[in-house]
Amino acid sequence: MNLTLPTLFIGQNLTYIKELPSTNAYALQLIAAENPPEGSIVMAGYQTAGRGQMGTNWRSEADKNLLISLILKPSFLALGDSFYLSKIAALACRETIAHFCPDAEVLIKWPNDLLLNRKKVAGILIENQLDNLKIAYSVLGIGINLNQFLFPEVLRETATSLWLQLGREVEPGECLTHLAVSLEKYYLKLKQSQLPAIDSEYLRYLYAYQEVVRVEIGGESLETYIAGVQKDGKIALQFGDKLRFFDIKEVKFVI
Ligand code: BTN
To answer: Which atom of ligand 1 lies at the shortest distance from residue 122's CA?
Structure first.
């Protein structure tokens, strides 16, 4: 892929590999081997062992979707603020998807899934490398469903793609161009410590924020009110007069 991105550093070092196990795994190998410049992107046409959140697999049809990993060096970020990487990745994906689908509802489902008209269109997997209690490297792995229109049976009800919304193809390179610009914009905001602006934009686009929803906690189906998201990334759920905080492993949303 020969692509010149209109950015300062995000994706200026772009490696395209037609098939590999996982762009995140590849990016982590690059980090171990050669200290790649900040902003390096690894892009693939197909992953044989794509990684999803919580040890799941990310399956994506060959040459249909956007599969990338972005290497950042956010050593300026306090460890306790690492959830901001999740927020900016989600905001950049949201902005990119909304650019292509201006008439659709594009929201972030906590912590960082992207919903297009209430169905999952993209996922993010962040893998950090720490050094002396600092984030030496962060790998932002992003998969956006672009041109795939058939999904495995288990995902058929819950997954979507830009093609299913628009009825036309979106080239992975064109999507990457917009995504790289957005990622750079939000990353620079983070670097300039514009945390309140990032927080309010994240909440603005957070699915069901300040709404009553049904969740599953410990196998039990409960109604709750989404009160907010903590600095450490935990979601704040209101049960009667009690506010409780959960991480991604502890709560499942029933959309
Ligand atoms: C999720 O479970 O929602 C996160 C999915 C993240 C998938 C992307 S595809 C590119 C990058 N490489 C991987 O192995 N995973 C991420």
So the answer is: 3
What is the rounded distance in angstroms from the CA atom of residue 219 to the CA atom of residue 49?
Answer: 29
Residue 242 CA to ligand 1 centre (angstroms): 34
Q: How far apart are CA 151 and CA 160, in angstroms?
A: 8
CA of 67 to the centre of ligand 1 (A): 7
Nearest-Å Rg of the Cα atoms of the chain is 18
Best mutation site among 23, 41, 46, 58 for ligand 1 pocket (most ligand atoms within 8 Å of CB): 58
d(CA 215, CA 155): 19
Is the confidence at residue 255, as pLDDT, over 80? no
- Digit-coded pLDDT (tens) for 118-139: 999 999 999 999 999 899 999 9
Q: How far apart are CA 227 and CA 240, in angstroms?
A: 12
Q: What angle do CA 105, 106, 110 make, to 5 degrees?
A: 125
Q: Supply the pTM of this predicted model.
A: 0.97
Pocket of ligand 1 contains residue 145 by CB under 6 Å: no
Quote the tokens at residue 53: 């959140």
For residue range 181-200, what is the model confidence (pLDDT) as tens digits? 999 999 999 999 999 999 99
| Cα–Cα dist 198/190, whole Å | 8
Return the beta strands (E) in 132-165 as ranges: 134-144
Strand 41-47 with 14-20, pairing = parallel
> Tokens standing for 25?
């795994």
Predicted local distance difference test score (pLDDT) of residue 41? 98
Ligand 1 atom closest to the CA of 44, numbered from 1: 10
pLDDT, residue 1, reads 76
